[in-house]
Specification:
Blueprint (H helix, E strand, L loop, with lengths): L1 H6 L4 H30 L5 H8 L5 H33 L5 H23 L2
Helix pairs in contact: 2-4, 2-5, 4-5
């Protein structure tokens, strides 16, 4: 399915709304929940400061939560790239309205930039 999105084979409506807006917001929600859980486990410290000060006495649940958080963030990052490229290619095939074509491109790029910026400010 990701290959079809990346190649722009799906309609602009499906690519933009289903996989773009709803997909990115869903993955963002998972990343934010894991980020909040990790933040409370780290007692307000950064990940580097927490692991540097704790050393070997780190709880296993914190390690697993850290791995899950960074894995979900990486998935969000690469999924966002696929969605932007897929929306761009899908909108190139959209012939009904020139406004909708460019509006979809602008909105999906803005959405991705806002979501990624929010997740980097954990």
């Amino acid at each position: 399915m990701l290959k079809k999105i990346l190649d722009g084979e799906l309609s602009l409506k499906d690519t933009f709304w289903k996989f773009g807006v709803l997909g990115i917001l869903s993955v963002h929600l998972v990343v934010r929940i894991l980020g909040i859980m990790l933040y409370h486990k780290l007692y307000g410290l950064t990940v580097y400061a927490y692991y540097f000060t704790k050393g070997i006495a780190v709880e296993m649940s914190t390690v697993i939560l850290t791995i899950l958080y960074f894995a979900s963030f990486c998935f969000l990052f690469f999924y966002s790239i696929i969605i932007v490229v897929g929306t761009w290619r899908s909108s190139a095939e959209y012939n009904r309205s020139l406004w909708f074509r460019h509006l979809a491109r602008c909105i999906i790029i803005l959405l991705v930039l806002i979501i990624l910026k929010r997740n980097l400010n954990l």
